[in-house]
UniProtKB/TrEMBL annotation:
Lineage: Eukaryota, Metazoa, Chordata, Craniata, Vertebrata
Annotated protein name in UniProt: Kinase
Residue ranges, compositional bias (Basic and acidic residues): 10-32, 58-78, 125-138
GO terms, molecular function: ATP binding; inositol hexakisphosphate kinase activity; inositol-1,4,5-trisphosphate 3-kinase activity
KW ATP-binding (keyword) present: yes
Bias type Polar residues, positions: 147-156
GO biological processes: inositol phosphate biosynthetic process; phosphatidylinositol phosphate biosynthetic process
Any one GO cellular component localisation term in the record: nucleus
Keywords: ATP-binding, Kinase, Nucleotide-binding, Transferase
Catalytic activity: 1D-myo-inositol 1,4,5-trisphosphate + ATP = 1D-myo-inositol 1,3,4,5-tetrakisphosphate + ADP + H(+)
Statement: the UniProt record of this protein carries the keyword Iron: no
Enzyme Commission number: 2.7.-.-
Amino acid sequence: MACQSNATNVKEDKTEELQSTERNEELTTRSPRDWLKAKWKLRRKERSGGSFEVDADSCERGRWSGKRRVEETEKKEEFNDDDDDEGCANAEGKHWRGRNSSFEKVRKEEEEDEDGRSTISAVEGDTKSSRETPKRNDEEELPGVTEGSTTQQWSSPHPILSKLLHSSTSSSSSLNLSSAESDEVFSEGEDAGSKRKTFRKVRISENNTLYTDAALKYVSKGGEVLKLYSEVEANCLDCLMRDPLRPFVPQYHGLVTRGELCYIRLEDLLSGLKRPVIMDCKMGVRTYQEDELVKARVKAPLRSDMYQKMVKMDPSAPSAEEHAQKGVTKWRYLQWRDSISSTSTLGFRIEGIMMEDGSIQRDFRKIQTLAQVTEALLYFTRSQLHTLRAYHSRLLALSDALKNSPFFRTHEVIGSSLLFVHDHSKASVWMIDFGKTTPLPDSQELRHNVPWSEGSREDGYLIGLSSLFFRSVAKRDNPILYTL
Ligand SMILES: Nc1ncnc2c1ncn2[C@@H]1O[C@H](COP(=O)(O)OP(=O)(O)OP(=O)(O)O)[C@@H](O)[C@H]1O
Ligand SMILES: O=P(O)(O)O[C@@H]1[C@H](O)[C@H](O)[C@@H](OP(=O)(O)O)[C@H](OP(=O)(O)O)[C@H]1O
């Protein structure tokens, strides 16, 4: 299915200065230089196979996630200005530039912020009602709780995400979660100056990847997040807005430029949730694209950062040759990560969980069995039946939508996540991250429920979906859960 990135097909958001179509014009005609610059940077990353590059100002540029964080940092001032314009709680950024913050502190600050949010909520309520897309019934209402009050109260950005995002631009991890490992994570070809900068950025990314990826810039007005533009992802989102999967994907509001960078505007999935509990599950039996494997065979750049992450987790994992060269190809690393986690066996892995107190757990890398996954899911939901039921029915609905989705049939979905979010009153599951989701050649379709063999492009997404809830929690030998 041929898809074109056409932001005019997505709905408008009147809270921004420009309408989507105008934004596109801006991108293509008003500031072609900026547009090309942003595109060129992204392309450079693709060409470099995701390895580090050092540019004139000695900043890490090539590493995809890291790169976005660096650019975010560089654009911080600009964003702060924007935030001011848009009423974003800049004070949050200040809190998080402090070095001694803790989650406890965040929680306190959150509560303070919460009190000051009522005026923003009212404005956003209007904004939301002006959207073209009618309010969807995506979120499972939990029994005995009415939606109104919480939605009103929290239609402004969730302060946890907002603060953590701000924290990713601070000069050290204000979350006090930094590890020795990340301090040493560098790639080849960097000079001392860039290493210092990379050191900072990588340390941040190591610790906060799940919720603080600076690829996402939180914007208070309108309940949106911005993610650095990727042509692949924008094309997918554009298609998805016209697909049966639309209710399972954050609403895509087109593109916006900030400074010289272009961003994708996405619905904030935490909007309306109070003290959300979040789980990111990376779907599929592999997290690398077939191209990555082909590149690795030819002459892929060696990633010393990935080698070091590997050694940190298991010093015996790299081969003698890899130890000698102190580097591994990206494919080798991703494939190894898949093999030690439940990705290759169950078709998904838990990337991380954030509980309502803000604590982040990322210790699921080596979880492999259904029993371990089930434990993690029960921990995540605190075995609350109403939450489990809500997730269960949402996943059943997703399963149906996937069956009817032309997009799903015709795309290889790699590295995409299901984002589980709930609070005391609601629970929902969303498909996110389409940066490595690509259309198949004409007329080719995937089954998604069979193992991968090279060339088949099968991703095993449905294997993961089936293991994720239906084969784990719902089948748990637990009389209460049988009622699911
Ligand atoms: N629309 C959204 N609303 C709220 N939070 C979101 C949204 N999209 C993503 N997130 C949060 O940001 C995190 C990172 O998002 P995403 O996976 O899209 O970014 P990425 O940079 O592609 O990540 P990766 O490190 O997997 O490459 C998610 O785990 C989730 O917590
Ligand atoms: O979770 P980990 O173990 O830290 O490893 C990262 C993870 O696999 C990301 O999905 C991947 O980004 P992509 O999905 O975009 O490839 C990133 O590659 P990168 O370093 O090239 O961004 C890896 O470093």
